[in-house]
Amino acid sequence: MTTGPAPAAVGVIGGGRMGAGIAQVFATLGSRVHLVERDPDVAAAARQRVADGLTKSAGRGTLNSHPEEVLGRLTAVSDAGALPSDVDLVVEAIPERADLKIAVLTEAEKTVSASTVLATNTSSLSISELGSALKRPERFLGMHFFNPVPASQLVEVIKTSETANAVTHRVRGWVRALGKSDIVVRDSPGFATSRLGVLLGLEAIRMLEDGVADADAIDNAMELGYRHPMGPLRSTDLVGLDVRLAIAEHLHTTLGERFAPPRLLRDKVARGELGRKTGRGFHDWS
Length: 286
Ligand code: NAI
What we know:
Layout: E1 9-13, H1 17-29, E2 32-36, H2 40-60, H3 67-71, E3 74-77, E4 89-92, H4 98-111, E5 117-120, H5 127-131, E6 140-144, E7 154-159, H6 165-177, E8 181-186, H7 193-209, H8 215-225, H9 232-239, H10 241-255, H11 263-270
Parallel strand pairs: 1-2, 1-4, 2-3, 4-5, 5-6, 7-8
Antiparallel strand pairs: 6-7
Helix pairs in contact: 1-2, 7-9, 7-10
The chain binds 1,4-dihydronicotinamide adenine dinucleotide.
């Protein structure tokens, strides 16, 4: 598998944490990026997040061009139906709800060309179900990026029984062009990464509930004992407790009792303790 050419133009739907990161890496690669966000304040915040990310990369010496030049390739779009037709790839990164994702993907499909690849960044939802309403499901797959997108090494490529091999091949080339590695997995609940990562995180929360150890000790157990780069509770804080809860609920329905969300996770989400983004989750980030 070799590195492919950069896509000339990419659409990214959703300007949250993941969407902004995905926009940043493709703009850095040289693609024109059209970032779809309905809320103008969130769109401005996403642009700022990309600008901050680029400044950080420049500071580390990992950016070959000027941040302003990269930012110049980023355009804001107010809805998926207004994407230009000539984008090579559209990546959807809106909240983890099948109905919302299906709505924006079908809207995008109406405006883009027949050769555009459509992808979802879902962490857990069925790719086949999300693609079921599309006219060209053979051009659709999962492209699961990790947080923070610019620093993470992996993109999990999830293909359905309908995804064309040529589409998977093209997407893998783009992942390599981004300087990242890919794994290809069959569409199944939680794929390879979320299924294992979420299970570990949920068990760590149950251990906290049982008073086995405190959050630092549980994370250190895996970081120092098993050489995981980040413990399961710090990782849950990074992903966002709300995002993790949504994934756990879905995996509970599809894979069974072992994914039942613990009470403590629900309570923290209800209190607005969502992890790093709110300053508090299982650890204090303030
Ligand atoms: P987020 O909540 O930070 O961002 C979602 C964004 O989508 C928001 O800015 C919202 O305004 C926007 N949005 C909602 N409806 C929209 C619409 N119809 N059109 C355009 N924009 C719309 O969520 P986050 O964390 O970026 O997650 C997005 C997706 O990525 C989810 O499917 C999640 O499961 C997945 N994911 C999240 C990871 C994480 O660590 N947070 C890691 C890997 C995947």
